[in-house]
Amino acid sequence: MKILVTGGTGTLGNSFVKNALKDNIDVRIASRRQPQEPLTEWSFLDLESGEGLKNSLLDVDVVLHAATSPVKNTSAIDVEGTKKLIEACKESRVKHLIFPSIVGIESLPMAYYQSKTEAEKIIKEGGVPYTIVRATQFHSLMDSLFHTLTKFPLSILPGQLKCQSVDVDEVASYLMELCQLTPQGTVDDFGGPEILTLKEMYTVWEQHRHPKSLLIPLSYLPISLFKAMKEGKNTNIEQKRGKKTWEEWIKEN
């Protein structure tokens, strides 16, 4: 079995590749920029233009489609790029496309999440055997968020928002399990082991990171996205599948 990882240099892709190599799985990274320290075979791929798709998919059995662009060119990469990938997978007769998505995206009014929802639909209707699995936010993302907030002497924190963060390595390990199976369609969400408010998460983070800035709690913002996260639309209490808690991850990193 040969696996192609689009977005193989990203947080999830990189974790998956390391996991695959430990198990002696034949894996190829596809991205626009070659990794400075390549772990394995690399192939140039520009999803926006489609350049490199044919070469990247050569002799590939399974595609882990982890490429994404949450900040800019989101529609071009996550939507149109996924369309191009699907067509190329059909031409190359790829046996299995695995798409890691995000929990609650249909309920969270955010352009990036809308693009992920559209990408899911494209994959479902695309004609390539697929597995879609949604995960909650990664511990590392929340760590980066708090680091960014505390760069300033004074910041605000919408502390009542909920989160169910998960260890990216646990998600990557599960994705590897899915690679060994036949296409499953849409499978159950993969959430972290606990649901916490941002205030609770920050309290833990502050104890171990010791920031110098002052964060002021914010109880209300008239923004629909914040309302949805306060209600926990980005979590799934029935799918606490990850094992490593937020505090355990913080202590290790």
Automatic annotation (TrEMBL):
Q: Which residues form the NAD(P)-binding domain?
A: 7-140
Instruction: Name the SUPFAM superfamilies for this protein.
Output: NAD(P)-binding Rossmann-fold domains
Query: Pfam families in the record, alphabetically?
Result: NAD_binding_10
Would you indicate the residue range of the signal peptide?
none
Highest rank taxon of the organism: Bacteria
Under InterPro entries, the record lists: ComplexI_NDUFA9_subunit, NAD(P)-bd_dom, NAD(P)-bd_dom_sf
How is this protein named in the record? Uncharacterized protein YbjT (DUF2867 family)
Species the sequence originates in: Peribacillus deserti
